[in-house]
Amino acid sequence: MTILYDQQRSLFHLQAKDTSYVIHVTKEGYPAHLYWGKKIRGTQLDRLLELKERASFSPSTELDRLALSLDTLPQEYPGYGNSDFRMPAYQVMLADGTTVTDLRYVSHEILQGKPGLAGLPATYVESDDEAQTLELTLKDEWSGLTVILSYSVFEGFDAIARSVRLVNGGSGTLQLKRAFSMSLDMPNDQFELLQLSGAWTRERHVHKRKLVPGLQSVESRRGSSSHMQNPFVALLAEGATEDHGDVYGVNLVYSGNFTAGVEVDQFHTARLFIGINPFDFNWKLEPGEQFQTPEAVLVHSENGLGGMSRSFHDLYRARLIRGAFRDQTRPILVNNWEATYFNFNADKIEAIAKAGQELGIELFVLDDGWFGKRDNDTTSLGDWFVDRDKLPNGLEDLVSRVKRLDMQFGLWFEPEMISPVSELYKAHPDWCLHLEGRRRTQARHQLILDLSRKDVQDYIVQAVSDILSSAPITYVKWDMNRNMTEIGSALLPADRQRETAHRYMLGLYDVMERITSAFPHILFESCSGGGGRFDAGMLYYMPQTWTSDNTDAVSRLKIQYGTSIVYPVSSMGAHVSAVPNHQVGRITSLETRGNVALSGNFGYELDLTRFTDEEKETVKEQVALYKEVRHLVQFGDFYRLLSPFEGNDTAWMFVSKDKSEAFVVYVSVLQEPNPKLNRFRLKGLDAGLDYRMEGTDSTYGGDELMYAGLATPQFHGDYASRVYRFTAAK
Ligand code: DGJ
Prior knowledge:
The protein is of the alpha+beta class.
């Protein structure tokens, strides 16, 4: 890893592990984007800048260089209004009401290491020799607006982290209308755009489309990253597949409103961008103030989508996720939500925990309904004191009953919410997001606390901390069950109301930072009606996320497959639930439910006391198997073999870093009579090693498994599955 600076050519060549990224500052002072892709050597790369003279409809900024128009220059952080007509990366309104600025290079600095982003989640380094950072300072002389573009390259990862700081260096007030985290211009439009889109219980499905002229983008206006879209897009070069070809992915380390996309212009260049959604956004910058954008993580792979995913997984597992659990295998849990919903008491909970302990499960999680008067979802959010009707001897007593069984104890919270029917709302009706005089739109009978307020932030930290200090709790599920409406804050002046949504995120990040650092022994799992806030921002504070409220094994194939495009398997909660499945009504075998859930942070979410003896035996085997393979599932390399979006069968596998072990999961959705002969190829093994298939006498060459493949298993009945374990023969 290094950042090379060629002063004579005004060229910055950023080199990550196997990636190059080249920036050239034109003689007029515009940072031009020259290259992003497989690592190249660092000579004379300014010739990569190709300018062609265009018609006068692309105006030239320099009379002596007609070929130079900002409309055709491949740029790093483009503005609007002085000859680039494409999607700008930033827009600022000056005190005189105009919005034209012209950023030019002023200076740069190359730093060892990677500075943190004030108040925001970001990838990090543990020592300065792990990364280098380029800070390019640009300035609009007229207004004093100063923009610092930051690029970090990692020694150990094929990733570049970009972010931007906008400083009001002038004397008038500035209004930020847009401030993306990154923008760059690809030289052509021969790509497919991949996005992860869905809905509640159908999150992160893979969608691809060929680029066409114009704007194609995804965004959230919901106040969170959302079930509907994920803050991620990838460009797949023509012919790129799961395993081959150039893929360029960008992911925003942010949990609020975002936009991400591509604009293909009239010359078939493709502008790729990601950042906070400018829709309904405005940020007032007084002289001397600055605004920090979230971080965008850029990953290039020449080994297809799979290679890109593994780079994201490695980086996020090692240098986004923090804390004691980053490198620890995660416990197998049982959660009572789908077992009891709100209808439980201490005895019922103890019975489920006891059944879990007998099956080898390690952690019991008490979900919604333990506080206030919460017998259904109409009340009590905000009243974080124990419901003595359900738990007459309090939480401490329940926790010790569970601990006596040698099980850990986890607890559910929804700290960002307030029920209109609650003690908290009676005391503080202005603590929710709202607009004076307007209806306060409820969703699931609840409103959202205004986390832009310091008093609200402090209340949440105190209320959650009091409970966490009251008993030996080792896991927290942090839920959030609605999107934002009437976004406004009682404490902000009129000209800062449109800052509320981003201020909310900054408040949330502050609250999570304070709570997670005060309780470092607690494993935090975020959740938003399942996967409504499955993003890199949340993972910085909480190393795992409840992937989806849909626990059906067949639905989960697409959800977990899609999620794995960016996020590591160690970040995905996956549970076996009852049949008929509560979300889709499907009946699948316990074996298949187990095999799909084994491909994540494994757990159960049903009434374990109702299992038959035969089912108990199956569960014991699943639990024992997970304990043997979880280091692979959570920390191995993940390879997607067969896509649920392309056929009836899904397969994926996990390979240890030293390639001595592998775990393969194969699921077939519907059976066909008289099936054709078929094989599926494994990936990521050592071709020169022999592997023993556990539970059989067979040994296979790694080369045979990868090049000839395994015979597709033959099943009788729908929703069938099989897992395989391979160990390198000594
Ligand atoms: C939504 C979550 O995704 C569920 O797992 C459960 O915790 C409920 N909320 C509880 O209200």
